[in-house]
């Protein structure tokens, strides 16, 4: 589906799963759930500094979570559940001060939940 809809000949704001804000035309929502995507997540995803909603649920993403994801300070909704992520959950998760929803279940994480999660001032579902 993405191969047919994500083209450099069209605006990124028209791509499937991408929503841009009306004011500045910057990507602020990325909803790629249930797209049968696989492989590691590129650290360059962290460059999407205006992203507030990231849903990668129910794909086959694998590998460790790149720390860069946890540098997106405007992020309010993060759903990485039902993938094949491994390793620990980075302590920088606690730096997402705007986060209101977090879903990491059904992956292969190991280790402890970082104490920094207590830094989240919003109530996280």
UniProtKB/TrEMBL annotation:
PANTHER family per record: DNA DAMAGE-REPAIR/TOLERATION PROTEIN DRT100, L DOMAIN-LIKE PROTEIN
Domain Leucine-rich repeat-containing N-terminal plant-type: 4-21
Cellular component per GO, a single term: membrane
InterPro entries linked: DNA_repair-toleration, Leu-rich_rpt, LRR_dom_sf, LRR_N_plant-typ
Biological process terms in GO annotation: defense response
Subcellular location field: Membrane; Secreted, Cell wall
Lineage: Eukaryota, Viridiplantae, Streptophyta, Embryophyta, Tracheophyta
Family the UniProt entry places it in: Belongs to the polygalacturonase-inhibiting protein family.
Keyword Repeat attached: yes
Keywords assigned by UniProt, alphabetized: Cell wall, Disulfide bond, Leucine-rich repeat, Membrane, Plant defense, Repeat, Secreted, Signal
SUPFAM superfamilies named in the record: L domain-like
Main location: membrane
Pfam families documented for this protein: LRR_1 (PF00560), LRRNT_2 (PF08263)
Superkingdom of the organism of origin: Eukaryota
Membrane topology, as annotated: Peripheral membrane protein
Protein name as catalogued: Leucine-rich repeat-containing N-terminal plant-type domain-containing protein
